[in-house]
Amino acid sequence: MNTGRKRPQFFIIDRAIVSDTLKKVVDAKRALRENSHISVSEAVKAVDLSRSAFYKYKDYIFPFYEDSLGRNLTFSFDLKDAAGLLSKVLTTIAETGANILTINQTIPINSIANIVITLETTSMVSPIEDLFDNLKVLDGLFNFRIIARVA
Which is nearest to 115 in space by CA: 84, 148, 143? Predict the structure, then answer.
């Protein structure tokens, strides 16, 4: 059944090519989310953005990681075959409150194993971006990439 309404199309683009106005909209939304005591007027003033621009774009731009909350997210990385390293990865994930749905690990070849993990993110107590930043700095973990996001 066609209701005449166009289905939205989504793109993933690098922040480097997003206009300054759209970046400021995201910054103002973040400020409002992090500080419930400020008004929209205060948030847009703090990032040097007009209220009209904020209201025009606020429902159309979201940080990639913010939109991942409440969803299943699958990511992959290579891991050095070292005792306790996978445990560090799992502990880092557990500290965020994410629920691990699946873990798949290849047999290490040349002391490197590929790991694919799917998380359910509804119960996370910190942003998924923080989790990924904490994982990426672990010594022995490399080639980190997001494979899929599913509602």
Answer: 143
What are the extents of the domains in the chain?
15-62, 68-150
What is the full per-residue pLDDT of the chain (151 aa) written as tens digits?
A: 455 556 656 677 777 899 999 999 999 988 888 888 899 999 999 999 999 999 999 888 877 655 554 578 899 999 999 999 999 999 999 999 999 999 999 999 999 999 999 999 888 888 888 888 899 999 999 999 888 877 6
Report the alpha-carbon distance of residue 81 to residue 106 in Å, rounded: 11
What's the whole-model pTM score? 0.59
Which of 2.40.30.170, 3.30.70.260, 3.40.50.2300, 3.30.70.270 would CATH assign to domain 68-150? 3.30.70.260
